[in-house]
Amino acid sequence: MATALLTRYGYPKVPGDQPDSVLDVTGPTTYTPLVPGTPGPPVTPPSGGQRITAQDFGLQTLDLVFGMGSTDGRYSVMVVPELIQPPPGLPSPQQLPDGTFSAVRLAWMDPAGGQASGNLSTSIVRLFARGR
Q1: Strand partners, 104
Q2: Cα 132 to Cα 97: distance, rounded to the nearest angstrom
Q3: Over the stretch 45-102, which tens digit does the pLDDT of each residue have?
């Protein structure tokens, strides 16, 4: 997986008290479609897709992530927050204690609305994130 942090224009930059960051993400050479989780019990978090971490953005945590369509116009991405496993006694995966996420999963979608398949390494999407 190739990523490219946009350092021009000062990314990550601070518009207020939270930094914003922009990341170009190249599609995986072998894409595994995102499989929705189940509410349980037992709770199963989503799997598959393409995992992008806060560190990929130059951040420690993520508040939100938005995606643009691919530069070749073949795909869009649906951004799904990756939940953490709960501490003992809590029933389901959840956000980090401060309400943020440490990673997201991208579901690459084709224009017809289905998930893409196969080699997506010639396509690049741009993501915008706000976090800490």
Answers
A1: 52, 81
A2: 14
A3: 789 999 999 999 999 888 889 999 999 999 999 999 887 665 566 655 555 666 678 8
Cα atoms found within 13 Å of the Cα of residue 104, Cβ hemisphere only: 28
Rounded Cα–Cα distance for residues 20 and 66 (Å): 11
Measured in whole angstroms, the distance separating CA 85 from the mean position of its chain's CA atoms is: 17
Retrieve residue 88's tokens.
Answer: 């003992």
Two tokens, residue 84: 């953490």
Q: Which residue has the tokens 């518009």?
A: 15
Burial 4-42 (b: 16+ CB within 10 A, else e): eebeeeebbeeeeeebbbbbebbbbeebeebeeeeeeee
